[in-house]
Design a protein that fits this description.
With about 300 residues, the chain is of the alpha/beta class. It is built from 8 helices and 14 strands. The longest helix has 16 residues.
Length: about 300
């Protein structure tokens, strides 16, 4: 694009977990000189809850229209569960604000249609909030994301999905049928996974190997035990090497900005007094831009 003799080209940036930090998001967009007419933003999910302005952040991202690509984080999943009637004390103030908003119906419609996974074949980059099982092909991931999208868009099915949820399914093998439990398992992985075994068994905080720890999710990849008794590794170290798409993700604030050949973790703990991160995706230098954020909450209190 040419304007007054200057060359402009479209840029694509991925942005880490915003958690309601709208003013810091706007600072970050100013820092990257985001231009809404020719740039695109990818959001890794968890743009609501914990921080000061969840509803404002939700409206802001929605109003970007097709300039923004979003995937669902565990907090947006909790919001949809709350809209289905699941009681969630931690999210109650946001849900109340959302329900009484003049644009509540439009916002709910939009929230329910956020996909779990996005993939851009021309960039060779995919995006998920937390992680992917090492045993899933990208075609399987796309299929699971489409099936989950249909569940969330339908009020009756989504109500069954959340209100008949039994956590016990997460300690078993992923069902290989077309049941809602199979989709529940996939949803838990895509929105909450950090570590798993090579055969795709996720490490959840109730696992006997970590249940005694005050905060099992404080594990960072470099401090994970490496012994035969502990078969779990960060999920992205276990993805197949021949995978064509690199994956951008969020969710793992304790690990901070994490750049690996096969995956880029962008949750740098914005709402905890860390940074909000943008990474340029369409340029080989993968330029990183960050803004420093005030500490709105502590990890222990949220
Ligand atoms: Mn998360």
């Amino acid at each position: 694009m040419e304007l007054w003799g200057c060359e402009f080209s479209m840029a694509v940036y991925a942005i880490g977990d915003v958690h309601g930090c709208l003013s810091e998001l706007k600072q970050l967009l100013a820092a990257i000189a985001f231009h809404p007419e020719h740039d695109h933003l990818w959001f890794v999910g968890d743009f609501i809850n914990r921080g000061p302005d969840s509803l404002g952040t939700l409206r802001f991202i929605r109003e970007l229209g097709d300039r923004a690509v979003v995937v669902m984080g565990n907090h947006e999943g909790r919001a949809v569960a709350g809209l289905c009637g699941w009681e969630d004390n931690g999210l109650a103030p946001f849900l109340q604000e959302l329900r009484s908003a003049p644009d509540a119906l439009e916002l709910e419609h939009w929230l329910r249609r956020i996909p779990l996974f996005h993939c851009d074949q021309s960039l060779g980059i995919g995006m998920v909030h937390a992680g992917l099982s090492p045993t899933w092909s990208l075609d399987e991931v796309r299929g699971l994301s489409l099936a989950l999208g249909k569940v969330f868009a339908d009020p009756d099915t989504s109500r069954r999905f959340f209100l008949e949820w039994d956590n016990a399914i997460l300690d078993q093998e992923m069902p290989q049928d077309d049941s809602l439990d199979r989709l529940r398992f996939a949803f838990a992985i895509m929105t909450r996974l950090r570590m798993c075994s090579a055969d795709g068994r996720p490490l959840w905080p109730n696992h006997p190997l970590v249940a005694g720890l005050a905060n099992p999710y404080a594990f960072v990849p470099s401090s994970a035990p490496q012994s035969p008794d502990f078969p779990f590794r960060p999920w992205f170290e276990l993805r197949p090497e021949q995978e064509r798409a690199r994956i951008v993700y969020g969710h793992w604030a304790a690990a901070g900005l994490t750049i690996n050949p096969q995956a880029w973790g962008l949750d740098s703990g914005c709402v905890y007094g860390g940074k909000l991160t943008a990474m340029r995706l369409d340029h080989p230098d993968r330029q990183i831009t960050q803004v420093v954020c005030p500490r709105y909450v502590t990890p222990e209190s949220s």
